[in-house]
Amino acid sequence: MSVLLVAVGLYLTNNFNRDQIRLQRDSTNAQRDLALKGQRADRFVAAVDQLGQEGTDRLSIRLGGIYALETLMKDSPEDENTVIEVLCAFVRTHSPRPRTIPRQVPDSPADVRAAISVLGRRPNPYSHAYLDFRNALLGLHDADLQGADLSGTNLADANLTGAFVIGANLRFVSLTDANLTGAFLTDANLTDANLAGANLTDAGLNKTYLTRTKLINANLTGAALYLAKLTEANLAGANLTGATLFYADLTNANLTGAKLTRANLTGANLTRANLTSGQVACSRMDASTRLPNGVVRPAEGAWNSTECKNK
């Protein structure tokens, strides 16, 4: 019996000790979590205070605040949405859309460009609603947005001339009437995006995903679209003069009224695309080019004729 009592006593003592250790550990963890939350709150307040330092002489302070928020966003996933909302509000208030859009959109301030870059590389892009740039007009000439996730963003009328947008996620983005002259969009995903009226002259769109993209009245003169995926894209009225469409997939694309003078359609797939024989009469193609039923293949070399050169 004494042995049994000793065993029971040891069991109860061990349980008590374990409970005490657990309580101490939980208390320590709670204190540590509370301290960490306090530190994050202090960091957030300090960064926002830096953002509010106005004036050209305080640009470096604002940039410090932007990058401090980026670090906080990476360190604390639960604060990511708040940081995103703050930076979006900063972009909107520091690049407001004027009543009249200037012919040449000026570059946005350096701190705004930095905020957009930070937002484009946010850690969890699918944990938050689309970036809210409504009522902002952005000048991002030569901006480096490689790999950025700007899906769903409103970039209407934006100036992205010469911008590096290689491999970026631009699904559902609005780039209506935007200037993308000479922009590099290789491997970018523009599925379901709206580029109606956009200027894509000499833009690099090789291997770009443009499935169901609206390119109505867009200017694609001289654009490079090698292996681009344009299935079901709406190119009604688009200017593709001299564009390179090597092996591009234009299956079911709407090319009503599109201009394809001297466009290189070598290897392109235009099966079930909406276009006429007249539209491709001055296009360059070879035997591997697949045309819709009823569309007459132009004579070899016709694209280089004097008549076509004068078009």
* CATH architectural type of the domain at 140-311: 3 Solenoid
How many DSSP H or I helices?
Answer: 5
The coarse silhouette is elongated
Looking at CATH, the homologous superfamily of the domain at 140-311 is E3 ubiquitin-protein ligase SopA
Structural class: mainly alpha
Low-confidence stretches are 1-12
- State the order of secondary-structure elements, H for helix, E for strand: HHHHH
Helix content: 25-40%
Query: Number of DSSP strands?
Result: 0
Strand content: under 5%
CATH class of the domain at 140-311 reads Mainly Beta
Distance between the termini: 110 Å
Write a concise synopsis of the structure shown.
Keywords: Repeat. The chain is mostly helical and 311 residues long.
Describe this structure in words.
- Pfam families: Pentapeptide.
- Keywords: Repeat.
- This is Pentapeptide repeat-containing protein.
- InterPro entries: 5peptide_repeat.
- It is a single chain.
- This protein is mainly α and 311 residues long.
- It has a domain of 172 residues: E3 ubiquitin-protein ligase SopA (Pectate Lyase C-like, 3 Solenoid).
- Helix content is 31%, strand content 0%.
- The longest helix is centred in the first third of the chain and has 50 residues.
